[in-house]
């Protein structure tokens, strides 16, 4: 067991710290405009603090992959509170996909503007009728001359109203088996025939959109991989998304906010932290978070050290992490009692009303990105090698 | 021996249910919730059915029914997430004002007077809030008082005395909560003229008991609707070429919700019956009823949303109205932890 | 709502009380012999305090069924602490079955000695390979001349070592569909070829047995119902068993013992009842028990008052009641801490070690009589009309 | 950065696992548990593998390994429900006696001396029990002391001073518990001669910390075995013409157990590593580790039994040995509630 990253990496950490200290002034804030944000992103790329391992031929920094370096960068930017590299589904999902399975022309055309923030993407996967069973999607694209003609509807398209382009799964081979009839297309959100409707969710905010396609015409070459291979193309990165959910560091940070809250807030004149039942629930959560943080360390270690197997540890993160967060936010509401009900434009909300909004949003995450039920199927089938449910007789 | 609803009670239930189904479907609730409207038209409709007069004695202009009838109406209002001042104005206020202000009670029965409830600080005072009386003047702050459109407020002081305050005598600010089907407000008292209704804490507690039973009944109804919606959605929704209702995981989620909620129906009936007929059992039963149903309700709210998948998370289906109503009921007039603590005290098991 | 049983029944209750007061001396105790117990049983039958509704032609008291009278009798005997009518699977399961579907000869031959305690029965249903899927049972009976020849094995046979006779499900029609190939046989446990092995369970006690049959020969006429109808015969009373599990009155009595315990026991000098976290758990259980008791009242009411439907309330009793009891016994163990570990021959056990033995036994009940998983299938399918799982493709 | 087992640690694990698989299968455990035998032969076998000497420094006759190695051995002993005085004699005693009684430590390492642990009353005194010292004499009562076959007992007084008492100087009675793979006893002190080992409560706490980590590791191993058995049983057992492992309800039960237990492995590793290398994190991590794993273990014990259906309830499969071991570990050296209370205190969140 060796929990340190070693001297070499501590040097690297110092470099990152120095960069942050020296460039703090240039970092954009919530009040900065888009141009400032893009300028900062370019600075980060030039210094290797984002798009670090993307080849410079495609606009990246071109370093060889190093998980610890990436982690140190993430830690230091998070600690400093200044803006790190841009996120979004284009950068986190499309770019890795293109680098993995895109053709040279696509890499040259799309990667650089995407990572530099000039090209914002949204993801067109889920449909109203295709959730857990994503491969049953029905949005279809028919070849007409040298164009695809797309009709159908997507849902849960989080940044559709801001996006320049979309990467989208469509059914192009209606006669093939369901996983083999899908293609992965890229097209501009300015293409005629696209309608975006904001999708208000239970938090009261439109975090997502519905997107409708009516005879949307897309050049034939804007396909990633071959016709009918879209499912494999999409799956080459789906694991990424799952890994992003259930992060124990975020849970720890929320727990610490809750502890602060409980030290401040009173119930009938008594501090909430002195209420033994709430305190016991708090400690239970702290124990669960601790377990998930050490689990996370084990996953990191398995990626660094050959021969270490943390596959089960990894399979359970989304399930455990989202339930944990939901429970944590729920405890805060219970601690606050009636004050926990305050929401929206109410001066009595605590922590900007995030206890309620996160209580609901985390329930959304329990459902999204593979519901808890799908997660349990995956854990039992892939992790424990239990049989799939038998195919029903027709 | 009969522990169930009588024919008269079922008829009452049916008529109110029909009204709510036809006149206050989810679309109407949305309008109130999103502030295009307030709940006055709904309340007017319910007044025509005699709901504000439900438990007011006949000789005071009411219908003269009891807590069981009140509970089944409260359950229906929860089932339909109906916006209304039922619990505060039609139930808690007449109990508290009985024999004190028959004039107001008659107006409540007629649907021309609404009375809000400001009990929060007398149950568990929040930081910096609390109300105290000096002579016939109130000072202090009450949060999450029920009903922004009330004409009067019944205010409980920190030492659980009951005062009546006219709405126009007090500074009143809307307090937004997660539950947009109800309104709550902040009341600021600054040497505000008030009428002492009772300095017997038992009067405060009787009004509180029935309020808690009503909130429990509301959660029962809301939870039942969420289960009904989940079961029906699961039967229609197909994934992997079969209705998701045929997946054991989904079936078991629905079975667990049902197993939890079904006994709550008997619990609400019993608590309401005890309120009118078994005084020695009322308070303990009430504490446990609201606490237990709040816990079951929390589970049902979460689980039924999960059965709906992403649709449960959207505003399209509107399931969140029930989710939030259950969340609101959980905290109001005593959280489960506080109620269990009180249950222990009532039995001499806690100091 | 009317929670009283009415004046007429209160008179009846007084009669029962009087009988108990006047006959207390004759009631057997744990030290009485079998003859005394049988004599008491006869007295009870003669006075209509057991076998009350069984026709006098078959040895019963011959009253018309009255649920409230039965309940009053049960309540008064329980309250008084004196021995009520005999139990056992013969009296509670076989007799109702025979009265329902047995032929006249069987009723005349078996009912009287059974209810008088002269004929003790055990039940031969479950097999090692047939638990949740009881209808897949394989113990078979082949007709040879005018005798059945039985081979196979039963398990969970609770009183096999004490029983005179067994009522037993066997496969007689191997070519029929599984539910249609079963017959319901009665035979003496003295028949050659029967071997009984005690089955020790996790509580450390042999509460059950395994029973092995090797060429056991049984006269052809000892069948109830027709060949192949055994499944229907057995099911005419299976509901009875499920109703016996999860009784909320037993839970209430245990809760009261736990409250007493918590008022007496100390943890580091502090009374257990003053420990807010344990007290909160106690109160949660009290709330759950209250809910189940009122649920039980509703079920009783629905049997008394036409038009009241309590079918869902009934379907959930076994699932909720057994889980509740398991949780309750578990709380007592947690309250006792290390003392909760004491078991068997240990002077430090509390309540005779029943907290541990019941914690385990109740887990057995969660599994037995239809596991919690089967209960949830039943609730969703029968209660909520959700579809059965599709039949697997072969 | 490496947070996982080294090759040496894996080899150690493999060799002990092989020994336990071959020499102490469930049938052997049953013999010890049902009192046909005691655990001396098992301990002798483990001594030949160097287990009693595991964490004793090399210059004291030991192997000189650390808490992580101790934890993976404890996990294995839990996995195989092995009867042995490992936690008391091989781990807690050498920590407490270090620098005080090197002679005994050498004997422990050689496998010729067993030391029991009587800490219960210093953690949470039970009614009428408790030990006090006067001069070098002990008086009082200690319950559930570990190991009926010990040569000495390390006794903690109510004020957490550590004393060593020879077994033949004290009245000792067997205390039967649910877990027949361990022995505990009642020790009655009546002005009993004792040797003061330490009056620094930190010495008591260091021994307690590692004992708690070992119990957590034991539950981890026992829980893992119960999951393994449940999964394997579910794959073999057929009902309704298919393996029950293909039913979603059974799959999800196994998935939930795995999701709960898998992070516990990392937690035990970390706590053990912290014990040797991160003193400022040790105690809080230890409290949470034992508390959390006790809760997960309780769920796994129940759920894996349910997956086995009736067979899980019988003695035939013997699953209950693991069930009871987990139950024993939960209460010993501090229950989850007590540990969470202590965790809060360590952070200044409780008085």
Percent strand of chain A equals 5-15%
As laid out across the biggest beta sheet of chain A, the strand order is 1-4-5-8
By DSSP, the count of extended strands of chain B is 10
> Which ranges of chain A are low-confidence, i.e. pLDDT below 50, for 5 or more consecutive residues?
none
Kindly describe this structure.
The complex is a heterotetramer, with two copies of chain A (394 residues) and two copies of chain B (351 residues). Chain A has 394 residues and is α+β, with helices and mostly antiparallel strands. Chain A has three domains: 25-86, no CATH class; 121-228, Beta Barrel (Butyryl-CoA Dehydrogenase, subunit A, domain 2), CATH 2.40.110; 246-383, Butyryl-CoA Dehydrogenase, subunit A, domain 3 (Up-down Bundle), CATH 1.20.140.10. Helices cover 46% and strands 14% of the residues of chain A. Chain A contains twelve helices and ten strands. In chain A, the strands form three sheets. A four-stranded mixed β-sheet of chain A has the order 1-4-5-8. The radius of gyration of chain A is 23 Å and the shape is globular. In chain A, 46% of the residues are buried. The model of chain A has no long low-confidence stretch (mean pLDDT 94). Chain B has three domains: 7-112, Acyl-CoA dehydrogenase/oxidase, N-terminal domain (Butyryl-Coa Dehydrogenase, subunit A, domain 1), CATH 1.10.540; 116-199, Butyryl-CoA Dehydrogenase, subunit A, domain 2 (Beta Barrel); 202-346, Butyryl-CoA Dehydrogenase, subunit A, domain 3, CATH 1.20.140.10. The chains are: A alpha+beta (394), B alpha+beta (351). At the B-D interface, helix 9 of B face helix 9 of D.
Task: Set out the fold topology.
The complex is a heterotetramer, with two copies of chain A (about 400 residues) and two copies of chain B (about 350 residues).
Chain A: H1 7-23, H2 34-46, H3 67-80, H4 89-101, H5 104-115, E1 121-124, E2 140-144, E3 147-155, E4 165-171, E5 182-188, E6 194-199, E7 208-219, E8 223-224, H6 230-244, H7 248-264, E9 266-267, E10 270-271, H8 276-304, H9 311-315, H10 317-336, H11 354-367, H12 372-383
Parallel strand pairs in A: 1-4
Antiparallel strand pairs in A: 2-3, 3-7, 4-5, 5-8, 6-7, 9-10
Chain B: H1 7-23, H2 26-33, H3 40-48, H4 67-79, H5 86-97, H6 102-110, E1 115-118, H7 120-123, E2 130-134, E3 137-146, E4 152-156, E5 162-166, E6 171-175, E7 184-193, E8 195-198, H8 201-236, E9 238-239, E10 242-243, H9 248-277, H10 279-307, H11 310-313, H12 320-331, H13 336-346
Parallel strand pairs in B: 1-4
Antiparallel strand pairs in B: 2-3, 3-7, 4-5, 5-8, 6-7, 9-10
Helix pairs in contact in B: 1-4, 4-8, 4-9, 5-6, 5-8, 8-9, 8-10, 8-12, 9-10, 10-12, 10-13
